What does this fold into?
Amino acid sequence: MISHVDLSISIFYVVAIVGIGLLATYRKKKRILSTASNEYFLAGKTLRWPMIGLALFATNISCLHLVSLAQSGFDTGLLNGNFEWMAAFTLILLALFFVPFYIKS
It folds into this structure.
């Protein structure tokens, strides 16, 4: 059962996120269509590599890790943990081979 404290914190969080989004929208009035889509998808080409790396990391660590893998770890033990360790090495190898290609292109 969800308590009143949990429900009020969840509602406050959603209202705060929507409020911050609306505030950011109204502060910066953008030109319509071409520049707006360019700035949306490419962030106006203002981001540096640490912010892009953190965004990719946050995308990889999603609700799958927080909910599903915890339950799988409870069911099967360290089996899923071994899969995650191998994924880290695989991502490093992919980064070593694909980053030079992306930088060149």
In short: The chain has a mean pLDDT of 78. Residues 82 and 88 are 10 Å apart (CA to CA). Residues 1-46 form one domain.
